[in-house]
Design brief:
Number of strands: 14
Strand content: 25-35%
Helix content: 25-40%
CATH class of the largest domain: Alpha Beta
Shape: globular
Distance between the termini: 22 Å
Largest sheet: 7 strands, mixed
Number of domains: 2
CATH superfamily of the largest domain: Gcn5-related N-acetyltransferase (GNAT)
CATH architecture of the largest domain: 3-Layer(aba) Sandwich
Radius of gyration: 20 Å
Order of helices and strands: HEHHEEEHEHEEHHEHHEEEHEHEE
Structural class: alpha+beta
């Protein structure tokens, strides 16, 4: 790797929060650059970054292949950053649309929309109301769930309560087993959950649970970023309670809306067809589009 890049890179730790936010807070909240996300999906402690002016560069592992990739967000040193990074790797990923718009098309780069990495943005008020044909499928899911399980209860969970954390971890472990994750996948997923719990005190987080009596049947992990935006980081449910995930996502949107949060970024689908179908049920208001950048021939 280019010596100057190697020297600039620093490990993503909780101490990096303010430096990263000093850049990312000036832009729309792309999921790949969320500090809490960078901390959670970092089971090998390999995520790294550096800032230059109003630009932050991240080096993370691809969500599916686990291969290291570079991305960046910002408004300064853009041409230089692209050039330096592409001298060390064949492709940049998760590049926000605003970056692509600022790169001179006279350069010999190939830009490709990466639909698999688009962030889904939902309007909490529209999810709350569920009006119109775009929410027909969601309404059906919600109504069927309420008819089948009329006694379930939605609660905000305090992650300082050990018994609630135990329920979250037990549900997560069962969820991984039902997905037939191998040992490495399961360990990575559970570690991400544990890290969210560990770092939640440093962020404005919201954990919402769906209960059947004392039994936790679904939960969502969320982060309120500012007055308008939230991240939906995780959502897991017991599959035997059909429709519980959709029901709780709507309940979470209602809570966020009551807190005056307008939009929730429920992140990307990574090209997984089942996940894409589930996220499209929420009739996203718009996407935060991302690109890959590579050198032309």
């Amino acid at each position: 790797m280019n010596g100057s890049i190697e020297q600039k890179l620093k490990k993503v730790t909780i101490n990096a929060k303010d430096e990263i936010l000093s850049v990312t807070s000036k832009f729309l909240p792309y999921s790949d650059f969320g500090v809490l996300s960078l901390l959670c999906w970092n089971d090998a402690d390999e995520n790294s970054f550096f800032t230059t002016g109003d630009t932050v560069v991240i080096k993370i592992n691809d969500y599916l292949t686990n291969n290291p990739v570079f991305s960046f967000l910002g408004s300064t040193h853009i041409e230089q950053t692209v050039s330096e990074l592409l001298s060390e790797t064949t492709m940049l990923k998760f590049i926000p649309e605003n970056i692509v718009e600022k790169i001179s098309k006279s350069n010999n780069y190939l830009f490709k929309k990466d639909r698999d990495s688009f962030d889904y943005i939902v309007d909490t008020d529209l999810i709350k109301q569920m009006e119109g044909s775009g929410y027909k499928k969601l309404r059906r899911c919600i109504n069927n769930f309420q008819l089948e399980y009329p006694k379930t209860e939605t609660k905000v969970i305090d992650l300082n309560e050990k018994n609630q954390v135990t329920k979250i971890m037990e549900l997560s472990e069962s969820w991984c087993d039902l997905k037939e994750f191998d040992k490495k996948q399961k360990e990575s997923d559970l570690k991400a959950i544990q890290r969210f719990i560990e770092y939640s005190e440093f962020f404005n987080t919201l954990t919402v649970g769906l209960f059947d009596g004392d039994k936790l049947i679904a939960f969502t992990f969320n982060e309120i970023i500012n007055n308008d935006w939230a991240f939906g980081h995780f959502g897991k449910s017991i599959t035997e309670y059909k429709g519980s995930s959709h029901y709780l996502e709507r309940e979470t949107s209602i809570i966020l809306n009551n807190l005056k949060v307008k939009y929730s970024n429920i992140q990307q689908d990574t090209g997984l067809s089942g996940l894409r179908e589930a996220k499209m049920t929420y009739n996203p208001n718009f996407f935060l589009e991302k690109y890959t950048i590579s050198c032309g021939k």
